[in-house]
Amino acid sequence: MKNLIADINKAFENRVRLGIMSILMVNDWVDFGELKEMLDLTDGNLSSHISALEKEKYIQIRKAFIGKRPNTSFQATTEGKQAFQEHLNALEALIKGM
Fold first, then answer.
1. Residue among 69, 79, 67 nearest 24 (CA)
2. What is the spatial order of strands in the sheet that 30-31 belongs to?
3. For residue 82, which of 30, 13, 7 has the smallest C-alpha distance?
4. How many whole angstroms separate alpha carbon 5 and alpha carbon 9?
5. 61: which of 8, 32, 52, 70 lies 20 to 30 Å off by Cα?
6. Domains of the chain
7. Is the Cβ–Cβ distance between 24 and 62 less than 8 Å?
8. No. of helices (H) and no. of strands (E), the chain
9. 94 CB contacts (<8 Å, ≥6 apart)?
10. CA dihedral in degrees (80, 82, 87, 90; nearest 10)?
């Protein structure tokens, strides 16, 4: 029998990382404040999950200034989008019991 959970990506097991990637899959760039507000997280909590996804090379970070204010934004990488889609496919297969 096929192992139904073998293709589930451990990087996306956490609900926060699942939320971050879900948002980044449908948006080009999202800034720190928007992610924080959408997911109702603290700065530290969001930062730790961002670091974990960046370590896996699933997201890229862009730091810039808007006027005189620093702005950090995030985008899913091609590798991240592929890994997340494979994760979703594995979840769907698990649900269907294939």
1. 79
2. 30-31, 69-76, 59-66
3. 7
4. 9
5. 8
6. 10-96 (1.10.10.10)
7. no
8. 4, 3
9. 4, 5, 8
10. -170
Structure tokens at 17: 């990382």
Copy the structure tokens of residue 86: 């494979």
pLDDT in tens, 48-89: 999 999 999 999 999 999 899 999 999 999 999 999 999 999
* Residues 71 and 63 sit within 8 Å (Cβ to Cβ): yes
Rounded to 5°, the CA angle 55-62-89 comes to: 50
Query: From CA 42, how far away is CA 27, in angstroms rounded?
Result: 21
pLDDT greater at residue 94 or residue 21: 21
